[in-house]
UniProtKB/TrEMBL annotation:
GO terms for cellular component: basolateral plasma membrane. This is Solute carrier organic anion transporter family member. It is a multi-pass membrane protein. The gene is SLCO1C1_1. One of its GO terms (biological process) is monoatomic ion transport. Keywords: Disulfide bond, Ion transport, Membrane, Transmembrane, Transmembrane helix, Transport. InterPro entries: MFS_trans_sf, OATP. The keyword Ion transport applies.
Length: 278
């Protein structure tokens, strides 16, 4: 009983706040970034630009896994302890890698990458031959006053509720939203548990598992997104054509994924779990 004590670290609060701020900063890139491209690019070029945006978004986690693989090889207290006194290796189950180092490197990189956005023009001239029926909307005129003037927050929330209700009433958008939720749920689960499965089933270290996931799983997805954008541009697909194309590719992916049921390994022999103690 004298060796037991309650955990007193509040580090999780800093991680929570950091992820909250990161999410706030990342959110405008996808909705407003795609809207920005859709407003100021030629209509036939938009699929390629959006595909490039999503491809880069997939390459980010790939480099994140590779960075995590590198950080996992470093001891968690690197810079604070004598590494020569560490007697365990990354293959030891007691090893804890320098997980915090990735946050610092990623944060500094994100800060440097955000600087060029400060030099983008507030408004661009639209191509004369395209997007004649589209109107650009200055989101800052709504967002900024709502942040700095509290008396405008309530009207903003009221308008947001009305817009949200109108969007969710669109059957096509709601169906696409449900489909996206199902796809991302399966994809995130795959990325979350596959490294741990590789560690337990194949005896790989955390570093090597992250390295293999980042190198083999994410690049094909990014390449597929980019090729999809090129195909849509080449054949100038309409909404119906794009829907048929997406359905065909999703069905093929589902069919190929069924092959995973035929791949497996025998369970490890664990005393008290898979075999008796005798």
């Amino acid at each position: 009983a004298g060796c037991e004590k309650e955990p007193s670290s509040h580090m999780w609060i800093y991680i929570l706040l950091g992820n909250l701020l990161r999410g706030i900063g990342e959110t405008p890139i996808t909705p407003l970034g795609i809207s920005y491209l859709d407003d100021f690019a030629k209509e036939e070029d938009v699929p390629v630009y959006v595909a490039c945006l999503h491809t880069i978004a997939m390459l980010g986690p790939m480099f994140g896994f590779l960075l995590g693989s590198l950080c996992a090889k470093l001891y968690v207290d690197i810079g604070f302890v004598d590494l020569g006194s560490i007697t365990i290796t990354p293959h030891d189950s007691r090893w804890v890698g320098a997980w915090w180092l990735g946050f610092l490197i990623g944060g500094v990189t994100s800060l440097l990458a955000a600087i060029p956005f400060c030099f983008l023009p507030k408004s661009l001239k639209k191509p004369e031959e395209a997007n004649n029926d589209k109107t650009s909307y200055d989101y800052s005129a709504v967002i900024m006053p709502c942040i700095f003037q509290s008396q405008l927050i309530y009207p903003f929330l009221s308008d947001f509720y009305t817009s949200l209700k109108k969007v969710l009433s669109n059957r096509m958008y709601f169906t696409f939203l449900c489909c996206s939720l199902l796809q991302f749920s399966s994809f995130i689960g795959f990325l979350t548990y596959k490294p741990k499965y590789m560690e337990q089933q194949y005896g790989q270290s955390t570093s090597k598992s992250n390295f293999l996931i980042g190198l083999t799983s994410l690049p094909p997805v990014g390449i597929g997104i980019f090729l999809g954008g090129l195909i849509m541009k080449k054949y100038k697909m309409s909404i119906i054509g794009a829907t048929k194309f997406a359905f065909t590719m999703s069905f093929l992916a589902y069919t190929i994924t069924l092959l995973h049921f035929f791949v497996g390994c025998e369970n490890h022999v664990v005393a008290g779990m898979t075999v008796s103690y005798e």
